[in-house]
């Protein structure tokens, strides 16, 4: 489980297993001693069962061009062909983000954004 420099644990609550509230509770319980636990995941705030487990929530919004550029650079660094990422974004990614992820900001206690890394905002 990764952590920020200050020891703040990060729990991935945006993967497909996030639909299992027991798995998420167990992951959070492993860090119950921490003053702050960051639950990270694109769809985290879209899931009622995740929101019910939190005291406070933050939505980290990054502009579409920055999200896409960062993903493409990661894929290039990993030796992957970013063409599928670009094609997927143009064909369905943007619309899916606007339909499912963007509205989740209404569930956040705090909305953050820009070009900063999550670790810097914590």
Walkthrough of the structure:
- The protein is an alpha/beta fold and 122 residues long.
- The chain has a single domain, classed as P-loop containing nucleotide triphosphate hydrolases (Rossmann fold).
- 41% of the residues lie in helices and 11% in strands.
- The strands form 2 sheets. Strands 1-2 form a two-stranded parallel sheet.
- 10% of the residues are buried.
- The mean pLDDT is 81.
Secondary structure layout plus pairing:
Blueprint lengths: L9 E3 L8 H9 L8 E3 L7 H4 L6 E4 L2 H14 L5 H19 L8 E4 L4 H4 L1
Parallel strand pairs: 1-2, 3-4
Task: Describe the structure in brief.
The protein is of the alpha/beta class. It has five helices and four strands; from the N terminus they run E-H-E-H-E-H-H-E-H. The protein has one domain (10-121): Rossmann fold (3-Layer(aba) Sandwich), CATH 3.40.50.300.
| Side-by-side strand order of the widest sheet | 1-2
Would you identify the CATH architecture? 3-Layer(aba) Sandwich
Question: The CATH topology is what?
Answer: Rossmann fold
Quaternary structure: single chain
Following the backbone from N to C, one meets helices and strands in this order, namely EHEHEHHEH
Sketch the major β-sheet.
Answer: 2 strands, parallel
Q: CATH superfamily, called what? A: P-loop containing nucleotide triphosphate hydrolases
The average pLDDT value, as a whole number, equals 81
Supply the helix-strand structural class. Answer: alpha/beta
**Share of helix among residues?**
40-55%
Shape, principal axes of CA atoms: globular
The tally of strands reads: 4
DSSP helical segment count: 5
Euclidean distance between termini CA atoms: 17 Å
